[in-house]
Amino acid sequence: MRFWIFVGVSLVAFIAILRFVTRHRSTRPRHATVLAVAAVVVIGGMVFAKYGHNAGLPWWIYYTMPALATLLLPPMVFKLRGGELAWYLGLAFLSSPAIHVAFSFLLGWKEYMPFIAVPSWRDLVGA
């Protein structure tokens, strides 16, 4: 169940990022397009990474494919340029570690990005 909670939170965060970076456009991207791109990048990427890892694929495949989808698909679909692209790349790269830190620290769920060690607040206070 945790995996799907991670997916849901990541999906909401990614949609918020796409909405934020395109906020100054006179014609905003259609909701359906934002949802479709977010579903491919987040849901598709996370499912591919999880099951690719479980199937024994090399790490460079199950991490690289979702990363490429994140890097290439939204900028191409939404034709991000200049400031939009800079905001997108920065926020897209920071969102996963931020989600990991929040879940690790607040709930003690460390499997989102297990290679980044973050103690939970319970670990810090000895509870």
Fill in the keyword field for this structure.
127 residues; mainly alpha
What does this structure look like?
The model has no long low-confidence stretch (mean pLDDT 94). With 127 residues, this protein is mainly α. The protein is 73% helix and 0% strand. Helix 1 packs antiparallel against helix 5. It has six helices and no strands. It has one domain. Keywords: Membrane, Transmembrane, Transmembrane helix.
What is shown here, in short?
By secondary structure, this protein is an all-alpha fold. The protein contains 6 helices and no strands.
Percentage of residues assigned to helices: over 70%
Order of helices and strands: HHHHHH
Whole-number average pLDDT?
94
Number of helices: 6
The beta-strand count equals 0
Structural class: mainly alpha
Strand residue content: under 5%
Net shape: globular
Question: What value does the Rg take, in angstroms?
Answer: 16 Å
Q: Terminal Cα separation, in Å?
A: 24 Å
Instruction: Please describe the biggest sheet, giving its number of strands, its sense, and whether it closes into a barrel.
Output: none
* Low-confidence segments: none
Number of domains: 1
Keywords: Membrane, Transmembrane, Transmembrane helix
